[in-house]
Amino acid sequence: MTYCDEQKKSPFSSKEAKNIIKDALKVLNKKHMAFIAHANSFPAEYGKNTGFGSVNSNAAKKLIDFLSGVFTDIQLGPAGKTKSIDASPYTGTIFSNNPLFIDLEQLTTSEWFNILSIETYNKITENNPNKDTNKTAYSYIFKAQEEALKEAFENFKKADCPELKNQFEEYKNENKFWLEKDSLYEALTVEHNNDYWPMWKSETDKCLFNPQTEEQKVQYEARINEIKEKYQDVIEYYSFCQFIISVQNTKSREYAQSKGMKMIADRQVAFSDRDNWAYQAYFLKGWCLGCPPDYFSEDGQMWGFPVMDPEKLFNKDGSLAEGGILMKELYKKMFKEKPGGVRIDNMVGLIDPWVYVSGKKPKIEEGAGRLYSSPEHPVLSRYAIATMEDLNPEVEADKEERILKLTEEQIRKYGALVEKIVIGAAQEVGLDKDSIVCEDLGTLTHPVVSVMKEYDLQGMKLIQFVVPEKPEHPYRCKNINPRSWAMVGTHDNEPIAMWADATVNTEAGYLNGKNLAEDLWPDASMEEKEEIAVRISKDAAFLTQTKLVELFACKAENVQIFFTDFLGLYDVYNRPGTSGDQNWSLRIPDNYEEVYCNNLANGKALNLPLILKLAIEARGHEFALQNQEIIQKLESIM
Description:
Layout: H1 3-7, H2 15-27, E1 32-36, H3 58-67, E2 73-75, H4 104-107, H5 118-127, H6 138-158, H7 162-174, H8 176-192, H9 203-206, H10 214-230, H11 232-258, E3 262-267, H12 273-278, E4 283-291, E5 301-308, H13 310-313, H14 322-337, E6 341-344, H15 348-351, E7 354-357, E8 369-370, H16 408-414, H17 416-428, E9 436-438, H18 446-454, E10 459-462, E11 484-487, H19 496-503, H20 507-520, H21 526-538, H22 540-553, E12 558-562, H23 563-567, H24 592-601, H25 608-618, H26 621-626, H27 628-636
Parallel strand pairs: 1-2, 1-12, 2-3, 3-6, 6-9, 10-11, 11-12
Antiparallel strand pairs: 4-5, 4-7, 7-8
């Protein structure tokens, strides 16, 4: 028997308990509380585990039911189509959605005219090698899902469903500007038996949307029509899969909204191979996005992602050029599909990107630099916004402190992409700038800080990454900006309990303890604070609890919780720099309610009533006294 069966005190077991928690969050001025879980990590219902999660399944609806009333948002990962050899959602397509997120069970019902046989569906769930674990089976489901969707497509073509087929035609027309290119790429992968376009033998096929002369334009258009005719069924199938997931996504979004929750999209900095091929005319030839050398990488990080050509983003008069229009359409699509907003992965990549010469290392001595901050560079100087007078000549180009000052006009130029494309796209679909979640972790150059301040954008504060020896560090409780999204960790980090185990009994553990004691026990004496600091530095469970208290006690208006920290799972979702089916594979267990309740009993899961009570008390005696009634209510559901 589980803890919840015995005690009936799970804070998610009743509407009354959820209302108490909601009132406590309001007292602490928390406007948003987001649950972080990439769609592939969503659970399955018993006997219905295909090997991959989806926000469109019945299990997702039940999870939304469970979380609603407390959580206001779900922070998803990138939704783009991934490749068979790479499960990372951060290398997916920018427009096409991932067919792996299609809920196959729905296709076996009358709603979809039974276009998928129940036998095929059952076979997939029965043969899932990870059906009894909370892990995805990426290679398995990638192939199995493809076979199932091809069966569904063949049956769809024969089905008597004129209304659904009309909807399909409308979808293709409405999304033609990106769907035509993405589906054509699919046809060419069949033509060349290779889904990596640089390996294609035909130079024409490599550049169909990048003609250099009028003669090439005519030649390429003829080739496009030839491929469309030859591979009509392949193109139609690709479009069909995108149509299904669009319909399912819309219904899932509406269901979440009916429960008072919204979904937040995730815009990765990368472009997929498919996007690189389709929009190569807008990229800066010979340059890639990456990171300069740092503590973690002696030679820097060679991401290999293409760089948008500044001259293709904006015209000389400041209006959007073709590349800028493309990017705005992308953000408009994302804001429409996820009205909770968009998390922008790597704000530096939008404002002050580090670029390097293709084929070389991202090091200064090999020609690398910041695209808009390199007035001394022989090539990049043409794009520079900062001038030589704005630089500290004693600081190297890859350092945060290199730019000393910027005028208001320069800040506006650095922020043009954010203002005219991202904020502009949000406004056009009826949202405001608070629908933008800015991942500004790591490098914060002067232009990035200035643009964030100029447009009053909400950044992120990762309290697991606080530098305890720096009293004014921005990730420390007392310094966290109210206009922030605070979290103990993201999808790229270890659970807070794992971090605490590695931190106790170290100098960093003691320094963390001193800061936490000072920030969260304001009324304690110096001797008491020292005792608390020592206990925190030696007791991993107490350190874990205190960091969670810090999250809610800080002044940030918004918080995010990764599902491992919420459920008390001692496992890692992503280990940066690793690949293979084992990475990006962790899922929410199918019996997550039981797991949550049992881990709540043993002190591993997030005990919200307790944490919120302690967070209120951490604001000081007077604040706690003013909110004694809500503290007592929290105690009643602990």
